[in-house]
Amino acid sequence: MDKKFFEDLVLAPSPSGFEQPAQEVYRNFVKDYADEVKTDIHGNVIAHKKGTGKLKFMVSGHADEIGLMVKYIDDNGFIRFKAIGGVDFSLLPGLRVNIYHKKELVRGIIGRKPIHLMKPEERKKAAKAEDLWIDIGAKDKKNAEKRVSVGDHITFSPGLEILNNKIITTKATDNKVGVYIVGAVLRELADEDIVANVYSVSSVQEEIGLRGARTSTYGIDPDVGIAIDVTHATDYPGMDKNQVGDISLEKGPTLVVGANINPKVFELLKKAGDNIEVDYQIDAAPRGTGTDANAIQISRAGVAAGLISIPNRYMHTPNEIISFKDLDAAVKLLAEFIRLIDDDTDFIPQI
After folding, report:
1. Of the candidates 95, 129, 156, which is a domain's last residue?
2. Which residue in 51, 103, 104, 143 could disulfide with 138, CB within 3.0 to 4.6 Å?
3. Interacting residues of 194 by C-beta distance below 8 A, sequence separation 6+
4. Is 121 a catalytic residue?
């Protein structure tokens, strides 16, 4: 486990459309393990490890995280904002945030009317965007505009805490875990000759519509592609396993099966896990998965798609929780999958 690489990814601010700080971390890590590293016009970073055969294998984790954007600065210097991606506004009051203005960082607090002053009906309602603002200590609009501008992006205050050995919490495991895994697998295979040409992609703008995966897949035109993302753990209060399934931290990554997934890719992922005796879980997805696997699968004339997910508690909150143990298992399983595929591997579905 390369904790520095992971921590650097998490601390790098990268809301959708502003991913390059995280992409720079990824570029610097993979340059020693790839034959070529390039950044496309969309901002996707593609690290290519050449194989001895013709088959092209793509693996993608998205670098973008949810965040906020400065929309308006009022006369009193308070900042109104909009969400980048799926933000739960009810969790925001009182949070510390970072506003990124040019090359400067401005700290702020998300404010809301105190509960003491709310009417009874107000207390029953979850906070909405119009109920909130960011306070940077400015005395008025003119003073605030010296420090921030409309269009500046905002993240939750970063950090990484180890709660219990390999259990960790950060603001953006969704989906810095994916970027970590697609980079770490190149290091895992660095001294090996493999048949498949591996394209390890740190994609952009997944949180606003799977956009980077769509463009990078079109450009690479892979034979087989696997997305790495997070999935909802259900091992904490309030989660309905009847609806979501039985997914736990520290029991390995999930291998997804369903319409979005090529059945032969799924079976080969299971074989890879069994070969090296790592734990994995099965996650049923009867429809599209809402991940980069959707975009990968339907690119051009179609790609044999797969999805590996890391169990994640409290998704899209300022404090998500994952396990390093699950990340390590995912890297090893993915590396074994790559060893198993070659130009003769047939991914055509059939009985």
Report:
1. 156
2. 143
3. 49, 51, 52, 338, 339
4. no
